[in-house]
Amino acid sequence: MQYSYEFKAQAVEKALDRGPGVSFNSVAQSCGIDHSTLRRWVGKFQNQYLAEENMTKEKTPGQWTSEQKLQAFIACASMDEEQTSAWCRENGIFPHHVEQWRKEKALAEAAALLVLKKKPSRYGEQPRTTDFGG
Q1: In this predicted structure, what is the pLDDT of residue 122?
Q2: In this predicted structure, what is the pLDDT of residue 51?
Q3: Domain-located, residue 128
Q4: N or C of the chain: less Cβ packing under 10 Å?
Q5: Residue 130 domain-assigned (yes or no)
Q6: CA–CA distance, 107 with 39 (Å, rounded to integer)
Q7: Residue 44 falls within a domain, yes or no?
Q8: Nearest Cα to 49, choosing from 81, 79, 12?
Q9: CA atoms within 13 A of residue 66's CA, in its CB half-sphere
Q10: Would residue 129 count as lying in a domain?
Q11: Which of 48-57, 70-79, 80-89 shows the lowest mean pLDDT across its residues?
Q12: 25/42 same-domain check
């Protein structure tokens, strides 16, 4: 017999929330199912819950804040390739993520400099230039 997801969820909830004097078998009986079926459902629920909990603890590289990315870049800046790889493994990322963040940072800095260069001052001066020739 196939049971709906809702029925399974309710049975698992009853089994997990049972009182101290209530046996697992009596919960299964009250649901009209075999105790081994209920145990299997509870096991699947617990495995799924633990897997989801572990997945939510680890951040993907896209979930790192700008501050965390900067800290990663600073931490890896003085490391060789092997040390960087080890650090990245410990923190759940790959070395290419740190490299990509470095490139993004450099592009942002270049864009900011271009904006500053082209922005005229408020007193009617000419835009700043980087031409230091004389």
Answers
A1: 61
A2: 57
A3: no
A4: C
A5: no
A6: 55
A7: yes
A8: 12
A9: 3
A10: no
A11: 48-57
A12: yes
Q: Quick one: 65 and 78 in the same domain? A: yes
Cα distance between residue 36 and residue 41, in whole Å:
9
At 48, list the tokens: 């799924």
Q: Give 31's Cβ-side CA count (13 Å radius).
A: 27
Q: How far apart are CA 66 and CA 85, in angstroms?
A: 20
* pLDDT the model gives residue 34: 92
Structure confidence at residue 127 (pLDDT) = 57
pTM over 0.85: no
The pLDDT of 47-65, averaged and rounded, is: 65
Backbone φ and ψ for 94, nearest 5 degrees, come out as: -110, 155
Domain hosting residue 52, numbered range: 5-57
The domain boundary, picked from 57, 78, 101, lies at 57
Which candidate, 103, 129, 132, 107, places its Cα nearest to that of 118? Answer: 129
Encoding tokens for residue 79? 């490391």
